[in-house]
Design goal:
It contains 12 helices and 3 strands; from the N terminus they run αααααααβββααααα. It is mainly alpha-helical and 327 residues long. The chain has 3 domains: 89 residues; 123 residues, Intergrase catalytic core (hpI Integrase, Chain A); 62 residues. α1 packs antiparallel against α2, α5 runs antiparallel to α6 and α6 packs across α10. The longest helix has 19 residues. 23% of the residues are buried.
């Protein structure tokens, strides 16, 4: 077995572990972390030594300068590798979950309809002049706001996935490899239809496997490139601070979709217990628990909740009695 990728005393095991994950389409995403672990083992692990508690403690300390999200991802991979190694070396110590740092998720920005319109208008002014690029960017933004799809799911759509006659799209191999159908509203289907007609007039491929959202040379629009353009638009509108500061994100369009959907249901007086499983399915979650992170209280939602509570449970004011001497 070739072990040229890794150089530590556990290089063969790291390579075998990576190959197993790669066959399950997970290896490429973890290769960078495995190489980092390999470099740590080169300096800290001698041949024949097991992965000990002390070694793991030093590794945890070596990741202290990383962000919480990066540390959590790396902890997960190290934990999997230790479990894998325990089948070959019983002395291997496992990395327990209580060692994981807590992820401090930034509060999502719930966009207002006015903000979304401003962002889309700004996207239509992008260059190059006369190209399809401004329409691509603005359509993706409106599409994410109207459907709640993940950005990767939207950019991975092909023409075969879009059925405007039935107003439905098929999301193939979304997060965790799950696929689902997502219905479109009449207005969203009309906007996508208008975009596809402009895309066709621009001369891009119309084969079924061609990407819906293309870059300037006709390939699938890249995720990092779209995020960069989107954040530049937000900064130009003063909706986000300079580079390095946290602020509204592309993914917050998904949060906005979920919150606005919940708000509409709440205002309609529907039973949310019967609707939340539908929202979970629509968003591509296997359980309602996965949807809870998207359901954040907003001022509008709290105001609607207060009105409903008052209308159902508030004690009506007692009419003031008048005496015979009063008019």
């Amino acid at each position: 077995m070739a072990t040229c990728i890794f150089r530590s005393a556990l290089a063969p095991r790291l390579h075998a572990f990576w190959e197993a994950r790669r066959s399950a389409r997970r290896g490429d995403a973890m290769l960078k972390t495995l190489r980092s672990i390999d470099r740590f083992f080169i300096t800290e692990l001698k041949p024949g030594q097991p992965i000990s508690r002390e070694l793991l403690a030093r590794w945890i300390e070596s990741t202290a300068h990383r962000s919480a999200g990066t540390r959590i991802n790396r902890f997960g991979i190290m934990r999997q590798f230790c479990l894998y190694m325990s089948y070959f070396e019983p002395r291997t110590r496992l990395l327990h979950r209580h060692c994981l740092p807590r992820r401090n998720r930034p509060a999502p920005h719930i966009y207002t309809p006015q903000e979304v319109r401003r962002i889309m208008v700004a996207a239509r002014t992008l260059g190059p002049r006369g190209s399809l690029r401004p329409r691509v960017i603005s359509t993706v933004i409106g599409f994410l706001y109207a459907t709640g799809l993940r950005i990767g799911e939207a950019l991975n759509l092909t023409l075969a996935d879009v059925d405007l006659r039935r107003r439905v799209i098929e999301v193939r191999r979304g997060k965790f490899g799950k696929s689902r159908y997502v219905p479109l509203s009449v207005s969203t289907a009309a906007e996508i239809g208008a975009y596809l007609r402009q895309r066709r007039r621009a001369g891009f491929s119309t084969t079924p496997d061609a990407p819906v959202f293309v870059n300037v040379i006709g390939n699938r629009h890249g995720h990092p490139g779209f995020v960069t353009v989107y954040l530049d638009i937000l900064r130009g509108l003063d909706l986000r601070g300079p580079t390095g500061q946290r602020g509204p994100r592309v993914h917050d369009l998904r949060h906005t979709f979920a919150v606005h959907r919940l708000l509409r249901w709440y205002r309609q007086g529907v039973n949310l217990g019967t609707k939340l499983p539908l929202l979970s399915t629509y968003l591509g979650h296997s359980t309602v628990t996965g949807t809870e992170v998207y359901l954040h209280a907003t001022a509008q939602l709290l105001e609607s909740a207060g009105r409903r509570f008052h209308s159902h449970f508030a004690v009506p004011p007692v009419a003031k009695r008048t005496t015979h001497g009063e008019a």
